[in-house]
Amino acid sequence: MTTTAPQEAFLQAFHAEYPAVTAEAFGRGHAPDGRSSYAILCDRVVGSMRVLDLGCGDGLLLELLARSPGRQLAGVDLSSHSLALARRRPALSEAKLEEGRAQELPFADDSFDACVSHMALMLMSDIEQVAAEVARVLSPGGVLACVVGGGAVGGEAVGGEAYERFLTLLRRTIEETPAERRIPALGDRRTRGREGLDEVLGPAGFAAVDWETIPIDLSGPVEQVWAAVSSLYDLGPLDRATVELLRKTFFVEVRDMTTSDGVVPCAFKIHLATARLR
Ligand SMILES: C[S@@+](CC[C@H](N)C(=O)[O-])C[C@H]1O[C@@H](n2cnc3c(N)ncnc32)[C@H](O)[C@@H]1O
């Protein structure tokens, strides 16, 4: 596979080192109704038998989808290392797992009833081309359902503060970091908002996006919360000493909000977007 952009080279290098980072960080997170963000996405495509996961990573979402018998599943990802983990999942022994770019999907026209994507669409450059490719491989009436990151939850929601504090520390760290240790700008901001996504998907033939914002609770012991928040790409290029200082500062910062049984309340938002091909 040829990589066309420094952004994609960065993503490949990052996931060569951390091939399952997203699933490890967010797999145990849960919405107010108890479902993980992966399970929420899965529930959006109940009844779709041919499903493609765009940016499937280590295959956690595909494994959940495989619980419905008879499904034909496929996943595509830039990262050979993440795909290697997906291929090890027994539930995915029949799935087509392809190393490739969402901008050039290695599938025939009309191959799928649904396309899902968890925390990946917002990283993709040339997003109009991705939208056109998704429309091409979906059958008429097919559904695109994706989860994109939405940042910290508002101050009124329990747990938003810990994430906010982490982001403030991270911003400060990055400001002090030499340019060569900063990540390239990733993706297209329009994918993070309803109007922007409509602007991208509409011309590819999708009807208006259904948009929902959901808080995801990541509360737990401080080590666990740190593992989740520190999974952000921005930490990838930082040197060990800088990450260690960030970790220590975060531990101090959240001490005052830690409950008597050692839980740091932490939450972030996801946006769940669904659009049907006309
Ligand atoms: C944050 S990870 C999420 C992985 C997985 N969906 C999950 O939530 O566990 C984003 C994934 O999208 C993949 N990705 C990003 N841009 C891509 C592109 N243009 N084509 C295919 N995969 C891409 C990355 O390689 C990475 O595995």
Order of helical and strand elements: HHHEHEHEEHEHHEHHE
CATH architecture of the domain at 6-154 and 185-218 and 267-276: 3-Layer(aba) Sandwich
Major beta-sheet overview = 7 strands, mixed
Number of discrete helical segments: 10
Bound molecules: S-adenosylmethionine
How many strands in all? 7
Oligomer: single chain
**N-to-C CA distance:** 32 Å
CATH uppermost class of the domain at 6-154 and 185-218 and 267-276: Alpha Beta
CATH topology of the domain at 6-154 and 185-218 and 267-276: Rossmann fold
- Based on CA inertia axes, which overall geometry fits? globular
Please state the CA-atom Rg, rounded to the nearest Å: 19 Å
Spatial order of the strands forming the largest sheet: 3-2-1-4-5-7-6
Which structural class do the helices and strands define?
alpha/beta
